[in-house]
Automatic annotation (TrEMBL):
<dbReference type="InterPro" id="IPR029068">
    <property type="entry name" value="Glyas_Bleomycin-R_OHBP_Dase"/>
</dbReference>
<dbReference type="InterPro" id="IPR050383">
    <property type="entry name" value="GlyoxalaseI/FosfomycinResist"/>
</dbReference>
<dbReference type="InterPro" id="IPR004360">
    <property type="entry name" value="Glyas_Fos-R_dOase_dom"/>
</dbReference>
<feature type="domain" description="VOC">
    <location>
        <begin position="149"/>
        <end position="271"/>
    </location>
</feature>
<dbReference type="GO" id="GO:0051213">
    <property type="term" value="F:dioxygenase activity"/>
</dbReference>
<keyword id="KW-0560">Oxidoreductase</keyword>
<dbReference type="InterPro" id="IPR037523">
    <property type="entry name" value="VOC_core"/>
</dbReference>
<dbReference type="Pfam" id="PF00903">
    <property type="entry name" value="Glyoxalase"/>
</dbReference>
<protein>
    <submittedName>
        <fullName>Catechol 1,2-dioxygenase</fullName>
    </submittedName>
</protein>
<feature type="region of interest" description="Disordered">
    <location>
        <begin position="296"/>
        <end position="325"/>
    </location>
</feature>
<keyword id="KW-0223">Dioxygenase</keyword>
<feature type="domain" description="VOC">
    <location>
        <begin position="7"/>
        <end position="119"/>
    </location>
</feature>
Length: 340
């Protein structure tokens, strides 16, 4: 198969209070607003090459509306759409909207909507926002710890391996690693990628009854020092850190998790390996081998198992500590057995 996809371009999320979310992303994270159209607000990190990387729209709950990848060519876009339809999924062609041209939008077997486009607007800042450096799409943010660009999305799906394999077979993602529980042969996490990063799409096991959920999405900073500054700045301005800063075993990225005003989880990450091996064979990690925390010395907070929108009728992990009626191991797959 030719390489179909090049990189993650954007994520659109729903939030009950768009203006509260916009204010948070601008003031606390350091994104910049570039457009408003049809009720959507378009935001970008200073180093994103495309028009925007985040779109916010109003919805009753925090949720994933769509995530987008750029294809490698116009032909790759047509080929990707053909391959999606060959496996029985019917999408739609669209004129693309702000910052992009013709695109193919489909909802996959696990309920997640993906937009594929070749034509994207390469961002060029106006004079007030222009960088002094030729390759930067705009000048660096003046917010301390502001991310350079969008990095990845992690969704929740009821069958982690089937989701990973579908995206490998249909769209050419490489499967990079799995996490299997220590206690049982249950795959609870996977990372897949369209490029040299360990992942631009992560998958956590979803035990809820709601399709199409998101666990978090992530921005990139260039250095671990910036990540630590981001954590400090967030805390000093009233945003609790949910988990981290630490380092994932899988992918070896430094990470930091917190919540936006809708409750949606945001990650900032940096570092990690680059992998160019075209026939890479994914290995099985376990929580005890450091899949989530490379230091193997602490359990992930239970709140990290929440995905969005919340599972109807169930209290959130934050409210109850653990979902009722479900084994803790399944819901906290990254806990280190006997520790934490
Ligand atoms: Fe992540």
């Amino acid at each position: 198969m030719i390489t179909l996809l090049s990189h993650l371009t954007h994520v659109e999320i729903a939030t009950p209070d768009v203006e509260a979310s916009v204010a948070f992303y601008l003031e606390r994270i350091g994104l910049r607003e570039v457009a408003r159209e049809d009720g959507k607000v378009y935001l970008r990190s200073w180093g994103d090459y495309t028009h925007h990387s985040v779109a916010l729209s109003e919805g009753p709950e925090p949720a994933l509306v769509e995530m987008g990848w750029r294809t490698t060519s116009p032909e790759a876009l047509d080929e990707a759409a053909r391959r999606v339809e060959d496996v029985g999924v019917t999408g739609e062609w669209s004129d693309g909207g702000p910052g992009r041209g013709r695109s193919y939008v489909f909802t996959g077997p696990w309920g997640h909507t993906i937009r594929l486009a070749w034509e994207v607007e390469q961002y060029e800042a106006d004079e007030a926002n222009a960088s002094i450096f030729p390759d930067r799409p705009e000048r660096r943010s003046s917010v301390a710890g502001a991310p350079r660009n969008l990095d990845h999305v992690t969704i929740a799906a009821s069958d982690v391996r089937a989701f990973a394999e579908w995206h490998q077979d249909v769209l050419g993602f490489r499967i990079m690693a799995y996490t299997v529980l220590d206690e049982a042969p249950i795959t609870v996490f996977a990372v897949i990628t369209t490029n040299e990063k360990s992942h631009d799409l992560g998958i956590v096991l979803d035990s809820s009854s709601r399709p199409g959920r998101i666990n978090h999405y992530a921005f990139w900073v260039d250095t671990r020092e910036e990540l630590l500054i981001a954590a400090d700045v967030l805390m000093e301005n009233g945003t609790d850190i949910e988990y981290g800063p630490s380092i994932h075993g899988i992918g070896e990225q430094s990470f930091l998790y917190f919540r936006d005003p809708s409750g949606l989880r945001i990650e900032v990450n940096t570092g990690g390996y680059r992998n160019y091996v075209p026939d890479w064979k994914p290995k099985d990690w376990k929580p005890s081998t450091g899949s989530n925390s490379i230091y193997r010395n602490g359990a992930m907070p239970m709140s990290m198992t929440e995905s969005f929108p919340p599972d109807e009728g169930r209290p959130t992990a934050t409210e109850e500590g653990v979902y009722p009626g479900t084994e803790e191991a399944l819901l906290n797959p990254y806990a280190v057995p006997g520790r934490g």
